[in-house]
Predict the 3D structure of the following.
Amino acid sequence: MKTENFLDRRRFLGVVGLGTAAMALDLKAATARHIATNVYPWMTFYRRRNREWNDERSRGIAEIAQTGIQGFEPIAESPEQIGLLEPLLKKYQLEMRSLYVNSSLHEADRAAESIAEVLAISIAAKRLGAEIVVTNPSPIRWGGPENKTDAQLEEQARNLERLGSLLRDEGLRLAYHNHDAELRNGAREFHHMMLATSARNVKLCLDAHWIYRGCGNSQVALFDVLEHYGSRIIELHLRQSVGGVWTESFSFDGDIDYRRLFTRVHELQRSPLLVLEQAVEEASPNTRTALKAHKASYHSLREGLS
């Protein structure tokens, strides 16, 4: 595993405000830390300008490189898609240390096929340097009001554990990811995925804003999740909002207290991969292009960590 993937104690001192001269070299190293972006926010920025990411993949990867961001996390749908990315990542010198793959694990007759698909995609991505596989076992209907039954949640947890075990056998780590639907009904889906799986096989990609929004815009809920499951965090998805609305660029100032979050992550001795996911929604400001917004996000995160 690449030690530079993560925030170690020496490189994280700046976040907790230890500003002595003896730490100057540590703070300088912090500004050079690896920061990645997920493809999802780029898709939302392109969409609002009537552009399609998949039609402009080469241009999009080039723009990511121009921001200063060092890593790219795709939403991968097939091994062939990973193959299409390989020459672009090499050309623009971007790393792919993680990938996001959707899965369907709550029905036994579909789960085996889904696990096989995730494995095939992940093994292809490993060849390009991937170490973390982020998955969200999808809802019955994305954005719909349906909730999974208890039996479906139990089936999903068993299959999530199996997927994590199989990925671990391949030298990869599985990170569970949620959106807001998993926080409904007392967050029973989210909590069951954590409590009915082992920390050995199923880690956590903490998407701070989906926790915050899914719990009714609650930082109390977000930091409670950190206390309960912080030891399993291996990746952070970073998005900010103001007044509940996603901003165009990431900032430490907004609805989520990211200074407090990073400080607590450090105290828990976690060193997660940092992945910007500063998407825009209908009510978001519309003043910046994807390139300008992500360049601002990158500099804000880098400066905030130093």
User: Anything to note?
Assistant: The radius of gyration is 19 Å. The longest strand covers residues 98-103. The chain has eleven helices and ten strands.
